[in-house]
Amino acid sequence: MATKGAGTVYVCQSCGNQSRKWLGKCPDCGAWNSFVEERTRSAGGKETGRASFGLRQTVPVAYSDIESQTEARTSSGIAEFDRVLGGGVVPGSLVLIGGEPGIGKSTLLLQIADKISAGGASVLYVSGEESERQIKMRGERLGVEATNLYLLPETNLESILDAVERINPGAVIVDSIQTVFSSKIESAPGSVSQVREMANQFLLLAKSQTIPVFLIGHVTKEGALAGPKALEHIVDTVLYFEGERHYNHRIVRATKNRFGAANELGVFEMTGAGLVAVANPSEMFLQERPRDVAGSVVTACMEGTRPVLVEIQALVSGSKYGTGRRMAQGFDANRIALLIAMLEKRVGFHLIGDDVFINVAGGLEIDEPAADLGVVAAIASSFKNAAIDPQTVLFGEVGLTGEVRGALQAQQRAREAQTLGFKKIIMPATNTAGLERLLGVRTVGVRSVEEALDELF
Ligand SMILES: Nc1ncnc2c1ncn2[C@@H]1O[C@H](COP(=O)(O)OP(=O)(O)OP(=O)(O)O)[C@@H](O)[C@H]1O
Ligand SMILES: [Mg+2]
Ligand SMILES: [Zn+2]
């Protein structure tokens, strides 16, 4: 931070970028009207760190003298959550959990608080949004019976740190980071400067006490509160509730993790008794799949370390306007445009005058090239108005010349398809070696989109 004594700066509320003048558009993240005037910290800047939680004296330590830690992870008590964290809770880690209002952040963390405290550690649950009565009510619904779980309705950082000192908890949960403020910082509570400084304080707390600290962060589209984006580089791990509230299931994804694979996914179902892990996500995502309908196809994705089968749907229909629109949910729209251009040029589909809609069923967001072939097949299926055999799975990256490229973890994907009873897998030719014999399921290796389409129709 560029703090040269007291003064005002303009801070982008979406990413934290600072400027001396007000700007209409943030040059860093591209947000409009996101700059808000903030007072910088008064005199010095040293004041905010609390001595008691300052880091140890920092002196260089010889690499060879540092004790290696053998996996000191502990379980959060919820296996699906452990998975997202990369195999459990790391002591001293700062974890941010973001998500839209009402998606289930408080629910999940209260369940985790319960489980962690049942394991013997005391847990401090700080809430700046709800009274202890409200939390207790939720807890009763969730069946929380913790005896060493402490609730603290508080928003003042200094009071929170005092409570930490008194209770000496084994884990701290802050609901939400946007509500916490320090009176030692002049910026308004909820502003990016405050929120970032608060996150830094909790980072110090986590590292100095070697306890896990979980921060809940709101994601608001309007940016009224500082977006968790501004916190991502401070914390060790970032988890997001993905998709929409309208589904019964909730997807929690690690978008950053210093202690595990990014992109790792946890799938839960929201019930009256809280979030319940979904045992087989592929099965769930395919549950409502229509059979023998044009435009529906199943592809195999890798979400972190786990293969997941999902249904991709395409709708190709004549556009009312000269040039068709391309819209996508759960898949990168630019990539769709590129795949459509490839289909026009290499396969001879005429799609210019058609609207093309793509939807990943179940609210999952797919971000990997191996799903290309599924998207292409879905578009082709809708375009030709010909259904794809419901027992077939496709995956593979598609290049601009229509070539099908190999995918990572092809075997795991194929195995998931086989496990779920699919009979045929259309996949990159470079990945098929030995698979058919290994899995006992028919694999068809293809080198190009044309080959794949020939196989399908
Ligand atoms: N009795 C109930 N039965 C089933 N689901 C419920 C029940 N009560 C609440 N929920 C679910 O819990 C959700 C609210 O969860 P929670 O309060 O944990 O969300 P949050 O992300 O913390 O929200 P906020 O941003 O408002 O703090 C509701 O949207 C609803 O889906
Ligand atoms: Mg909440
Ligand atoms: Zn910005």
Helix and strand arrangement:
Layout: E1 8-12, E2 18-19, E3 35-39, H1 79-85, E4 94-99, H2 105-118, E5 123-127, H3 132-142, E6 149-153, H4 157-167, E7 171-175, H5 192-209, E8 213-218, E9 237-242, E10 249-257, E11 265-271, E12 274-277, H6 281-286, E13 296-303, E14 306-318, E15 326-329, H7 333-347, E16 354-360, H8 372-384, E17 392-394, E18 397-398, E19 404-405, H9 410-419, E20 424-428, H10 435-439, E21 442-446, H11 449-456
Parallel strand pairs: 4-8, 4-9, 5-6, 5-7, 7-8, 13-17, 15-16, 17-20, 20-21
Antiparallel strand pairs: 1-2, 1-3, 9-10, 10-11, 11-12, 13-14, 14-16, 18-19
CATH homologous group name of the largest domain: P-loop containing nucleotide triphosphate hydrolases
Count the beta strands.
21
Largest sheet: 9 strands, mixed
Query: What is the overall silhouette?
Result: globular
What would CATH call the class of the largest domain? Alpha Beta
What's the CATH architecture name of the largest domain? 3-Layer(aba) Sandwich
Number of domains: 3
The number of distinct helices, counting runs of at least 4 residues, comes to 11
Q: Poorly predicted ranges (pLDDT <50, ≥5 residues)?
A: 1-5, 42-52
Query: Taking all residues together, what is the mean pLDDT?
Result: 89
Rg, Å, rounded: 25 Å
Q: Record the strand order, biggest sheet.
A: 6-5-7-8-4-9-10-11-12
Residue share in β-strands: 15-25%
Please tell me about this protein's structure:
- The protein is of the alpha/beta class.
- It has 3 domains: 44 residues, no CATH class; 207 residues, Rossmann fold (3-Layer(aba) Sandwich), CATH 3.40.50; 173 residues, 2-Layer Sandwich (Ribosomal Protein S5, domain 2).
- It is built from 11 helices and 21 strands.
- The strands form 4 sheets. Strands 6-5-7-8-4-9-10-11-12 form a 9-stranded mixed beta sheet, with helices on both faces.
- A hairpin with a 2-residue loop joins strand 11 and strand 12.
- Helix 7 crosses helix 8 and helix 8 packs across helix 11.
- It is globular.
- The termini are far apart.
- The chain binds adenosine-5'-triphosphate, magnesium ion (MG) and zinc ion.
- The site of magnesium ion has 4 residues, from helix 2.
- The site of magnesium ion (MG) has 4 residues, from helix 2.
